[in-house]
Write a structure and sequence with these properties.
Layout (H helix, E strand, L loop, with lengths): L8 H31 L1 H11 L9 H18 L17 E4 L10 E4 H10 L8
Antiparallel strand pairs: 1-2
The protein binds zinc ion.
Length: about 130
């Protein structure tokens, strides 16, 4: 949880009203958003791609991209759109990660075990190209 420093009384009131709204309607709103997403999966994914990674100046470009891509994958797993396999494409079990060759579409990736993912990234660096 991040704590908020209110700019002024007006800002505090607005944020509290938002919080009350989310407490009251958050579940139905999330359910509606999830339903829309399930029915419009391609549009939702095009939207994710178009929106791109959030820019956080504190995080380096490489980390920002990898974090963004893995988060999109993690959310797709949480929604039940895809399932993380027990065994990676490399044939190994263990920690299976989504390995991206290109971050322009975070839903295009290979499932690799962690050591194979690290090796692949070392042998073929993915973020040397400008994005
Ligand atoms: Zn492997």
């Amino acid at each position: 949880m991040t704590s908020i420093r209110y700019e002024d009384e007006e800002h505090r009131k607005r944020r509290e009203a938002q919080r009350r709204w989310v407490a009251k309607h958050g579940d139905e709103n999330r359910a509606r958003a999830a339903k829309w997403r399930a029915e419009n999966l391609e549009r939702a994914r095009a939207y994710d791609r178009a929106r791109g990674p959030h820019s956080t100046p504190l995080i380096g470009e490489r980390k920002r991209l990898t974090k963004w891509a893995s988060q999109i994958v993690r959310r797709a797993i949480a929604r039940g759109e895809i399932v993380r396999p027990e065994i990676g494409e490399c044939g190994h079990a263990g920690i299976i990660e989504s390995a991206h060759a290109d971050y322009s579409d975070p839903m295009v990736f290979r499932w690799l075990c962690q050591p194979c993912h690290r090796r692949w990234d070392r042998l073929e660096p993915k973020t040397k190209r400008p994005y």
